[in-house]
Design goal:
The chain is mainly alpha-helical and 99 residues long. It is 69% helix and 6% strand. A hairpin with a 5-residue loop joins strand 1 and strand 2. Helix 3 packs antiparallel against helix 4.
């Protein structure tokens, strides 16, 4: 078989599951820790959070509930504000944990 049919024939799905499990086990055995965020990372995520908040707050101040994104699709402005606050909460909690 060729194309997508190969994925489902001859037990390929079970082979894929076994490889994924063995890879996850190998990564756990390495005991690799994630690198701590540097101040530039915290600053970058804070700027992105403030940008999302501003992108959502400006249409709300104009009395609109939606704004257009780059591709012309409608974005619910309170959702953008929420995502911005999530970024800022993540930065703040990570900064407090690192101190």
């Amino acid at each position: 078989m060729s194309g997508l049919g190969e994925i489902y024939c001859c037990g390929a799905a079970s082979d894929l599951a076994e490889r994924a499990t063995s890879l996850a086990t190998a990564m756990k055995k390495r005991d690799v820790k994630l690198r701590e965020w540097r101040p530039v990372h915290l600053f970058g995520f804070a700027v992105i959070g403030v940008m999302f908040i501003a992108m959502g707050a400006l249409p709300l101040l104009r009395g609109q509930t939606h704004y257009e994104n780059y591709w012309g699709g409608a974005v619910f402005a309170p959702f953008a504000v929420f995502v911005g606050f999530l970024f800022l909460v993540g930065v703040f909690t990570h900064w407090r944990k690192g101190r």
